[in-house]
Amino acid sequence: MSDDDAANEKPAAERYRFSVDPRQQPIRLDRYLHSRLEGLSRNKIQQGIASGYVLVNNKVVKANYRVRPGDELIIRYPRESDHLPLEPENIPLDIVYEDDAVVVINKPAAMVVHPGAGNRSGTLVNALLYHFQQLPAMPGNELRPGLVHRLDKDTSGLLVVARHEQAMQHLARQFARHTVRRTYRALVWGDFRKDAGTITSRIGRSQRNRKVMDVFDEDLSIGKPAITHYRVLERFYYVSLLECQLETGRTHQIRVHMKHIGHPLFNDATYGGNRILKGTLFPRYRQFVEHCFTLCPRQALHAAQLSFIHPTSQKQMVFEAPLPDDMQQLIDRWRNYVQQYKN
Question: Which of 58, 210, 311, 326 is most buried, by the most CB atoms less than 10 A from its CB?
Answer without folding.
Answer: 311
